[in-house]
Design brief:
Low-confidence stretches: 273-298
Largest sheet: 2 strands, antiparallel
Radius of gyration: 27 Å
Structural class: mainly alpha
Oligomer: single chain
Order of helices and strands: HHHHHHHHEEHHHH
Number of strands: 2
Mean pLDDT: 78
Number of helices: 12
Helix content: over 70%
Distance between the termini: 83 Å
Length: 304
């Protein structure tokens, strides 16, 4: 399955590498372009999450009112979701998409000769088998294999160095090399900052009443758990996988933070007056009804 994803991604990565000729810059350009392509999904997801936060009191009221009738509760919740264009699972989509792409990307990192230079993996394995070599990846092909591929007419020049860092190496196998720690540490710091940014954004979009809502408190607890889980996941990936994945994670996190800032400033903030306006109209209507009721009562008392 992951090879299929890698094959799909290679259609975009291979031309970039052919132009720039460096694996590190290929990852950077590819990641930025990927974020631009997926930005509509990210915007839609964050708009949905913002609406979910603003109608949380209504959702909590429905859950309380129909606590003993799950079917009716779901029906009423679906009405709210449809009315305010909310996708209950929308917030998970960007993260899920990122993880799927990462799983495909790791195949590209482990098999650069196949996915960057378009050399069939079967042919590489066949040459290695003929030389009595068992390959688990293509990160360090021997000179004999590369020479044989060159004789068969394949382009074998592969530049995996980026700013003095070999992106084919793994931190766990090179702990004494201080340059190997740069990308993993940067990735970890950025992940923590991104998680804090998301948590702060969610809190800003909530009123004090919403923050005290049980559902909102549960969401806040989940957000705090993500603040712990995501850095742990980042540490695992950047420690055990080649540094090419660490570079992808760094650029992906930077572009994600930029996207979140742009969406919060130019999309979510513009949504607030619309939602509040609807609430204000309801409040005004209620005040008018209450005023009319008081007026009728006063007139009745005068007539008496």
């Amino acid at each position: 399955m992951f090879d299929l994803i890698a094959n799909f991604l290679s259609f975009f990565i291979r031309p970039i590498y052919a132009i720039v000729g460096n694996y590190g810059w290929t990852i950077i350009i590819f990641t930025i372009l990927l974020k631009l392509v997926t930005m509509p999904f990210t915007v839609k997801s964050q708009k949905s999450m913002a609406r979910m936060q603003q109608v949380q009191p209504l959702i909590s009221e429905i859950q309380r009112k129909y606590a003993n009738n799950r079917e009716k509760q779901q029906q009423e919740l679906m009405k709210v979701y449809d009315k305010y264009e909310i996708s209950p699972t929308g917030g998970c989509m960007p993260l899920l998409l990122q993880m799927v792409i990462l799983m495909g990307f790791i195949q590209i990192v482990y098999k650069p000769y196949t996915f960057l230079l378009n050399i069939p993996a079967n042919e590489i394995n066949e040459i290695a088998k003929g030389l009595g070599i068992t390959l688990t990846n293509q990160l360090s092909l021997g000179s004999d294999i590369i020479a044989t591929l060159a004789e068969r007419g394949y382009e074998t020049a592969l530049d995996m160095n980026f700013l003095g860092i070999n992106l084919s190496k793994v931190l766990s196998e090179n702990l004494t090399d201080w340059t190997m720690w740069i990308l993993p540490v940067v990735a970890l710091v950025l992940t923590v900052l991104s998680a804090l940014m998301s948590q702060n954004s969610a809190q800003k979009n909530q009123s004090e009443k919403q923050k005290n809502d049980p559902q909102a408190q549960q969401a806040a607890a989940m957000s705090k758990s993500m603040l712990i889980m995501m850095p742990l996941l980042t540490a695992y990936i950047t420690y055990t996988w080649p540094l090419g994945c660490a570079l992808y994670w760094v650029i992906s996190t930077i572009t994600q933070m930029a996207q979140q800032f742009i969406v919060n400033e130019f999309v979510v903030k513009k949504m607030k007056p619309i939602v509040l306006k609807k609430k204000k109209k309801t409040q005004v209507k209620k005040q008018v009804i209450d005023t009319e009721a008081v007026t009728e009562t006063d007139e009745g008392e005068k007539n008496d």
